Each structure stands twice: as structure tokens, then as C-alpha cells.
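[audit] Reproducing an earlier prediction to check determinism. Same input, same settings, fresh worker. If the C-alpha cells differ from the archived copy the diff job will pick it up downstream; this log only records the rerun itself.
[audit] input (275 residues):
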Amino acid sequence: MFRKMFTVKCIAKAIFLSSLTLEAFAFGNNGGGGGGEDNVFAEPGDFDVVTEPGGRDCTIFRPEQLGDDHAVVIWGNGTGASPNTYAGLLRHYASHGFVVVAANTSNAGTGEDMLNCLDFLEGSQLASSVDFSKVGATGHSQGGGGAIMAGVDPRIATTAPIEGFTLGLGHDRDSHDQQNGPMLILSGSADRLVNPRTNHAPLFDATNVPAFWAIAQGAGHFEPVGDGGDFRGISTAWFLFQLEDDPEATTHFVGDDCFVCEDPGFDVEGVKEID
């Protein structure tokens, strides 16, 4: 037991120290160019995007011209990072029509700050432009763990944790079998900080909802920084599939010849009840 606790603490400390460099890499990392580079959803969407404060604690990335039924994506940062660290990715989601609300905290592991940003959106002037039955949660590293924690909330229709840390930093593994909607689990094969076998295999096994687990080949821990790298297209497709019933996005995950299943840049580790 002591050895296990010591190992977990060492991993958490390593992630914390390494993540402090995220801001420095934010605009210098455009991804590894491996998995998903041919994914149509890695290309920008049709909406022009604006960024604005969401009170003191949140940052909003949204289409400049709003309709009345936009789906929502809430975001959690990695340790030591901010929404600016992932601005390219969050603007990309918004370009596909999503209203993205990112928690400004650098400690998103409990998911509470992410859900607080959803509360803010519900009470804001933007609420009339949003369909709150279509809310997804995602984030990177500690924020990926926070997205899983947020997924227990009945307002969250789906989650897509990116290299999510599930060994501490506010994360409770009891959340794994209390999810409210389908989950896309994204790992990096070269991630030395959040090992897929210790963080994501138990998550896939325990989750009580349909799940799709894909590992981006050659992706390290900082792959999502900036524009999302190889995780940009697949995560965008997932939210369009789950929240908008987009037929092309659906084919990325459904069927034996699904796009992601055939993409050499991804190794699909497991599919649970996706239809």
C-alpha cells in the first residue's frame, strides 16, 4: 500500500512540474502530424469565432453569429495551464458551431470549476442561444480527469477526456461508473506522464456508458497544446456525432469500417456499445 501511494504521489508531482511548461509550448506546438491528419473535422468549421470573458472564472469561445440551439462544450485545463494554452483547439470547436466555456483554473481535476462555468452560461445573456440538452465535457490531463468528474452531472450528455489523469489531483475513480452519457477516451502512445494502461484501461473497463477508446500513435503528453494536434479532428467529430447527430461524424465511430478504426494514426483499444 505504501509503495502504491508513493508511486501515485510521484506521478502527480511529475505532472504538476512538467505542466508548468505548458504556457511556454502553447503557440509552438502544432501537434505531431500523426493520427487524424486526414480527418475532415480537423479542418476549421464555417463559423467566425469570438472570445470573451465569462465572468471572472471562465473564458468563452463562440460563433460570432449565434442562432438559438448551439451545443455546448465545457473545458478543463491541464495543471498549470489556462484556456489560452489551448486557444487554437477551443476556437476550432467554436468554428464548428459549439459554444465553448473554459474554466480559467489551472486545477480542474474535481470538475467543479467546469460545472460552475456551465452554471454561468445558464444564467448569462447567451443562454437563449444554447440548447442545454446538448452539453459535452472535455479537457486535457488534470482537466481530462475533471471532464470525467463533470460527466456525473445529469446535464452532461457526453464526455471526451484527452489524456485524462485519473490517479489523483481531485479525481475520484468512483466517477467512472456514474457517468451520464457516452465517453470518448483519448490517449497518446508516447505519453510518459499519463500512462494509458494505468489511467485509461481501468476507466474503459469500469465505465457504465458506451465508450470508444483510441490511442493516437506517437502522441506525447503535450500533443493537445495549442490547436489540439492529432486530437483535434477526432474530438470534434465525437461532439458532432453525440450532440448534433452529424451523419458524417457518426461514421467516424460506428461500424467495423469506421473512419477512426481504419486510421493508421490511431489504435482503437476498445469499443463498448457504440451504435
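[audit] rerun output stored. Observation attached for the diff report: Residues 1-36 have pLDDT under 50 and may be disordered.
[audit] end
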